[in-house]
Every structure is written in C-alpha cells, then in structure tokens.
Write a structure and sequence with these properties.
It contains three helices and no strands. By secondary structure, it is mainly alpha-helical. The chain starts with a helix and ends with a helix.
C-alpha cells in the first residue's frame, strides 16, 4: 500500500466534500459567508488535486507554483469573504 497516495487522496476527497456540502448549504440558506467558504474550499481542493498530480502522476514536473497559487487564492477568497461579511 502506498501511504502518501492514500493521504493525498483523502485530503482531496475531504476538501472536495467540504466544498460540495458548503455549496449545498449556501443554496438552501443563501448566506453569503457559506458561498465564500465553498469557493475557498474549491480552491483548496484544486490545491490538493495539483498535489496528487505533482507527487503521484507527474513526479518529474514541478507544480509547486500552481499549488501555492491555488492555496493562496483559497485563502484570499476566505479572508475577503470574512471581511466583506463583517460589514
């Protein structure tokens, strides 16, 4: 069993599941903070997908910049959502 592959896959599944559940909660309640959080978790899932591709599928290709960009975009959306909803 390849433990890193299992961990990477579980992280991808968890972040994608969180994004889906938050998106579904937003559609039911229309609370904008749920929308911002769902979008942020979509970026986190993209980050984890890039990690899986980088480490497992294409180990010779360096996707570090793309992974960091996805994580940074997720954090930026989350912080923007928190600041926007405080007002």
């Amino acid at each position: 069993m390849n433990t890193p592959a299992l961990i990477y896959g579980l992280c991808l599944a968890a972040s994608a599941s969180c994004a889906a559940l938050l998106g579904r909660a937003y559609l039911r309640s229309r609370m904008r903070l749920l929308l911002w959080t769902a979008v942020a978790f979509c970026f986190f899932a993209l980050n984890n997908l890039a990690l899986v591709v980088d480490m497992l599928l294409l180990p010779g290709v360096d996707l570090w910049v793309w992974r960091q960009a996805a994580a940074g975009a997720g954090l930026a959306v989350l912080i923007f959502g928190f600041v926007w909803e405080v007002r």
